[in-house]
Design goal:
Chain lengths: 308, 292
């Protein structure tokens, strides 16, 4: 199959691309970022997904499937540019899919869509509303992109659309929101709170995306690996030390003393859990995670050791 | 830390049939270490501080989804705590009853954490359904916060029952095991509820007792379980149908409360008699063991 991956330059994009290539697919990538050591056989186009040149790739190559991974978080892009990439980019991808006869489009979203709040349920089902817009405004563009992708399910009946909401990624490349949060030697926690964190190894993330392609899955699915663990366990398991701070001190200390810089909304995500129910995805695809939580944390710790 | 954990209790925690991971944490955040600490403390309350009389615990199934449904008794959750403790110590193998806590708990530092670590989650229909789907034992007080607000003279009455539990039980085909709890009102005789203080602590209200704070007195408590009740249907029936079923459960619980009061009266009369005898024989005190 000819597969086009917008956002191939990201860590997950690269993982997925390699895996598809191994499976014998023809892989084409679009990204503004370069991928220097890309394996031979992957065709790269250094263009912006929102620009004319990107549409040309669709027109000339006529991919059968598209895996849209060109979305960014507040950690990567801090300006209004983020909204343009996430919303404008997603729109462009789906319009090109419609116009150039793509059969299957996969939108790779995030489980933080559901948001964290004291009164949000554990194990979110796909139909749960996106509370992230109120709990964490910096995520609202990703929520909107996710919902926009969902509209393709009824707007574009000829296109098979999959929306995946992936749990946090954790693994040796240190990619992802959780991995970035854990990067320092000390990890701040809010005193008196220790929420469950749902994460999976990057190889499992890539495997799940490839499986969605293979099974030509249609609909919205949560994707998660091993069972969630408390943040304190994640901190210990990755060889870090937790610094529990009262909420007021926590707000003041962020971005100082070597602690990560976080938007105010992130506080809710450190106080309350975002845990998803991925049973529907497992049933539909037969997905079984290969790496458990212990090894995922171990690999991260080995890749990013803390200097004592 | 290990001083706070009785090895015997820890061994029982090991026998809980829950999918704990390598770190001793289950998928809902309950932790083995925390449960061992909690039940070590609760065992003292259950066996020594209060005197808890339990009847019908054999009606709680050893495995599979089930819903314990009962009345609130007392201004703070000693009823829930003792129900959980009885399921842990009286059942073979032990089971963890999981309650549905008030939302304010999750927002309060430490409180929400302690609740989660002991398997007591924020009361949400979605979470309850997921627990039942995982074949857990749910503990529900359909009176909600209205039930804990009962004043001393109303302690053995029942207030309005919500119907959500019934719809959920029918939808998920879960047997309901009604229980009646007596004595919580004597342990915490609420003379008033302070809503102003509640606001201060972020709780709905704070119960006031003759001795000020809601510290429970060491009294006799009676807990009675009844045979399971099952209701066929989909949970989407008309209100009249559901209300009728809820009323059946409520009546059953009212009967259990009466039974519990009777047992409590007899036990107290007997112990008072024993105390009098002891006084006559010139050996006052230490009747605690005889009461049990």
């Amino acid at each position: 199959m000819r597969v086009l991956i917008p956002g191939i330059g990201g860590v997950l994009g690269q993982h997925v691309a390699r895996r598809l290539l191994e499976q014998g697919h023809e892989v084409i990538g679009i990204d503004r970022r370069p991928w220097h050591d890309a394996p031979a056989g992957i065709e790269l186009h250094n263009v912006d997904i929102r620009k004319r040149a990107a549409e040309d790739v669709f027109r000339k190559k006529r991919p059968q499937a598209v895996i849209h991974m060109a979305t960014v978080t507040h950690l990567v892009e801090k300006t209004a540019e983020r909204y343009k990439i996430n919303l404008g980019g997603t729109r462009a991808v789906f319009e090109h899919c419609r116009d150039w006869g793509v059969e299957h489009a996969i939108f790779v979203g995030r489980h933080t869509y559901y948001g964290a709040a004291a009164d949000s349920p554990l194990y979110h089902k796909e139909e749960d509303p996106p509370m992230a817009v109120t709990t964490f405004p910096e995520l609202s563009d990703l929520v909107a992109a996710d919902l926009y992708a969902c509209t393709a399910l009824w707007r574009l009946p000829n296109l098979c659309t999959t929306v995946l909401r992936m749990a946090y990624t954790l693994g040796p490349t240190g990619h992802g929101t959780l991995a970035t949060f854990l990067r320092g030697r000390h990890v701040p926690m809010v005193l008196g709170f220790d929420p469950l964190f749902h994460f999976m190894h990057e190889e499992d993330v890539a495997a799940a995306i490839c499986l969605a392609l293979e099974k030509r899955l249609q609909g919205v699915y949560n994707v998660a690996g091993p069972q969630p663990v408390p943040l304190s366990v994640v901190v210990r398991g990755t060889g870090r030390s937790a610094i529990p701070l009262p909420e007021i001190a926590f707000r003041a200390a962020l971005g100082r003393f070597g602690l990560p810089r976080l938007p105010p909304g992130a506080l809710a995500h450190i106080k309350y859990p975002v845990v998803v129910d991925s049973e529907a995805f497992r049933t539909a695809t037969g997905f079984v995670h290969q790496v458990d939580e212990v090894r995922a944390m171990q690999e991260y710790r080995d890749a990013f050791p803390v200097r004592r | 830390m290990s001083l706070l954990i009785d090895p015997e209790v820890a061994a029982r925690v090991d026998r809980l049939e829950l999918p704990f991971n390598t770190y001793g944490v289950d998928p809902y955040g309950a932790s083995k270490q925390h449960l061992a600490r909690l039940f070590t403390a609760f065992r003292f309350l259950y066996r020594h501080y209060f005197t808890v009389g339990v009847e019908g615990v054999e009606h709680v199934p050893a495995r599979g989804r089930a819903m314990l449904v009962g009345n609130h008794s007392g201004g703070i959750a000693i009823d829930g705590a003792m129900v959980i403790t009885s399921c842990f110590f009286e059942l073979e193998p032990p089971r963890l009853a999981q309650g549905m806590a008030e939302k304010f708990m999750a927002q309060t530092p430490f409180m929400g954490l302690l609740a989660t670590r002991s398997g007591q989650l924020t009361g949400l229909v979605e979470t309850a359904e997921h627990l039942l789907h995982d074949e857990r034992l749910l503990m529900i007080f359909p009176e909600g916060a209205r039930g804990t607000a009962k004043l001393y003279p109303e302690r053995n009455t029942l207030v309005h029952f919500g119907s959500g539990f019934m719809r959920l039980a029918m939808k998920t085909r879960t047997p309901i095991i009604p229980f009646g709890f007596v004595g919580g009102g004597e342990a915490i005789p609420t003379i008033a509820n302070s809503y102003a203080l509640g606001k201060l602590f972020g709780a709905p209200y704070v119960p006031i007792t003759p001795w000020g704070v809601a510290l429970p007195a060491p009294v006799r408590l009676e807990l009675t379980y009844s045979a399971p009740m099952t209701f066929d249907g989909s949970g989407t029936e008309e209100d009249e149908v559901i209300e009728g079923y809820v009323e059946q459960v409520k009546q059953r619980i009212a009967g259990l409360i009466e039974g519990g009061r009777e047992r409590r009266r007899k036990a107290l009369a007997w112990s008072r008699g024993a105390e009098d005898e002891a006084r006559i024989e010139g050996e006052p005190g230490s009747t605690k063991e005889e009461q049990r």
